[in-house]
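Bug report (template v2)

What were you trying to do?
Predict the complex of my protein with adenosine monophosphate.

What happened?
Run completed; filing so the output is reviewed.

Input:
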Amino acid sequence: MFSQFALHERLLKAVAELNFVEPTPVQTAAIPLALEGRDLRVTAQTGSGKTAAFVLPMLNRLMGPAKVRVDIRAVILLPTRELAQQTLKEVERFSQFTFIKAGLITGGEDFKVQAAMLRKVPDILIGTPGRLLEQLNAGNLDLKHVELLVLDEADRMLDMGFAEDVERLANECANRQQTMLFSATTGGSGLREMIGKVLKDPQHLQVNSVSELAEGTRQQIITADHNVHKEQVLHWLLANETYQKAIVFTNTRAMADRIYGRLVALEYKTFVLHGEKDQKDRKLAIDRLKQGGVKILVATDVAARGLDVDGLDMVINFDMPRTGDDYVHRIGRTGRAGAEGLAISLITHGDWNLMSSVERYLKQKFERRTIKEVKGSYTGPKKVKASGKAVGVKKKKADAKGDKKGADKKKTAAKGPTKRKTVNRPKADPLVSQDGMAPLKKRVTRPPVSE
Ligand code: AMP
């Protein structure tokens, strides 16, 4: 029961209004400590209820004795626009019986309109680091009176090259009394460094271990001969599986567009989301998916971050994600709040070793599935090592038969930086991939699965 927490009655009223009955594990663990004012480092995935875990204690703090001055008193930093928008909605839902006001600052929106909003000084500012920094540099933002800072999806912010921006913004909140950092994964040395810099004697709450993340979701692989064959398998799955809504993941923008084109030609009602889509397209895609007008979304990893759509019960990895963490994030789209989900990865000869690394990372073995109607000739390596990797398989050349995955990556690198709407991220830009995902070089050169 939420009444177990020492939350203001107006917040409990909002919680009741939203039909939240039982707190989720992350809420049970984090809310009391957050209310005490502790710095927290929380490992919990999207879908675990982590937003309420920090928003409720934040609102509770802000409901304390009113200050004479009007200041921005809390800041929430997030990696993507969608996530920021969803968080704003969550804040508005929980603060509906209070006078607390929140504002949103993300890239892709009108700078002057944002500056005007800032002049009204919201109590809570929610935003992505790049644009917040631009507003700061333009002199439109004063963070000196911020009491509470939340870094949400910190691991992903680092992946996206936001480390310096986040640190700079944290330094601007010099008088803060509390900092909470949330990440879906335990992260690597970059995250440890950030934790050392921004948190003070934090309590670490690890709510989900990686191997528990995909509970409630069946995980399968289907082998395929090449990308054209993958398309046939995909078509079969979309036509024959039972699902409410499906998301098809690709590693590149080019592949997302290609699959989208194929599905449209097959008369599926579908949308495509990737880093190059503008804000209107993204909103439309998400709204249609939520309303149910569209059942299928083709997306790259970054575009799908923080998506919280009810009834998303099938995830298809057209391309195997490049890291175990990305796999966890993708699969986290389905099987939410105890619902059943199905995650299917399409695996060619070139994907096998990556797939087996992800299995080892998750300490799970995916179900092997064959569909006789679209069965190909590749059924996995003839011999596998104890690690599950293929014996004697060399990396395939990018332009090998049918497998365009590598070729797409090459093209990506040759094409250079993606046009960006935000500035101040010179470090990340030269390495940004076509879909606006994390710096490509960094992602490709780090081991396929991180710690
Ligand atoms: P999050 O992990 O914060 O993105 O939350 C995932 C979804 O679960 C959101 O739609 C929340 O509104 C919902 N949610 C969070 N906590 C609860 C709860 N205790 N009971 C029911 N739904 C919840």
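What did the reviewer find?
Residues 2-208 form a domain with the Rossmann fold fold (CATH 3.40.50.300). The chain has two domains: 2-208, 215-374.
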